[in-house]
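User: Some background: our group keeps a shared notebook of sequences we're curious about, and every so often someone picks one and asks for a predicted structure to add to the entry. Today it's my turn. The entry only has the sequence so far, pasted here. Could you supply the structure so I can complete it?
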Amino acid sequence: MALALVICSVRIAHTGGSLTGGRFERWSAMNAFPKPVIDAMADRAMRLHHMLWHSARDSWAVLTPQEKKAYRDHGWEPPRPSLSAPDPVTGRRAIEFDNGSGEDFLYMHREMIGAVNEILAELGDPQHPRVEGWPTIPSPGDTEYPVPPPFDIPGDSGFTNAIGNAKTRAAFDRIRGWEAQFTDPAELRQMTLRRLGAGIEFGIHNLMHLRWSAEMPSYRPGGDEFSVDPQWDDSSYNWLADTYSAHVNPVFWKLHGWVDARIDDWMAAKELTGPVPWSFDPPWSGPAGEHHHHPVARLALRAQAGNTEAEALRSRLSSMEATVEDLKQAGVTEPVRFAVHEDI
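Assistant: Of course. Here's the predicted structure to add to the notebook entry:
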């Protein structure tokens, strides 16, 4: 489930085409994150981690035993899948509201934000002192965060339609309804943290990823057997509708800053103080590691030539490269990106 307001004026080397023009270029100049953050988020290890984390959770309930083994052998078995197996009658997959996957979603992205905030504090950029989410989700016609127009994804009519639908007024009305629900103290008092996270992920979060995605010169193939050619590692590939690239896009942090603030609203509604009362110690953000709870994000942000973080990051990258190769050999394909469920 991923998304990208591709509003950057840099070029992708293999296409030669500018990503966007006009107002989106102006937006980029004003809002681009400091280069050390963008470079770290565009690092191949960070891209693979973000993609594998989402893919494992979303795919697990529909994988064959052999396909599950490919994830499991590399430490990527999700303890709490995010979606159920298809209903035998309707074929629809349901959101796992109560197994705790929603907490994993909130926790993993809070860890990413925390890692970025550490670096931003050290950089001292007055324009970006920390990740700050939208105080309220931008409405149609917003000049600072305009919704890019619909566009075609060659060979993928289903995803083209999903993105087009996400940019409509009707989609914004759904966003406003969900925003009201997830910021209402009375509603939040009735929710568990796991239901809050799961509802946000497969409703408003996924819809926003698609809504603010923008046309690019080319797109990493979706549904293929993990097409991760290094051509997609250039920092200009920051498409918000792809888990391999969404976190490179500045809008990702506005969007996820909004999501993260809902944890604080939930705490306030429950009259809770202190650390977040996660049900797991800790929730799942990928294979366990010795460097913090989200090892790859912090390693990518702190890696310098020759330091221990760089060595650890190379080790993680090698492991994830092996994971992808085994997934390919098993015939695993990527799940639908940022699928939006209406029944929240």
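Suggested note for the entry: The two ends are 16 Å apart (CA to CA). The mean pLDDT is 89.
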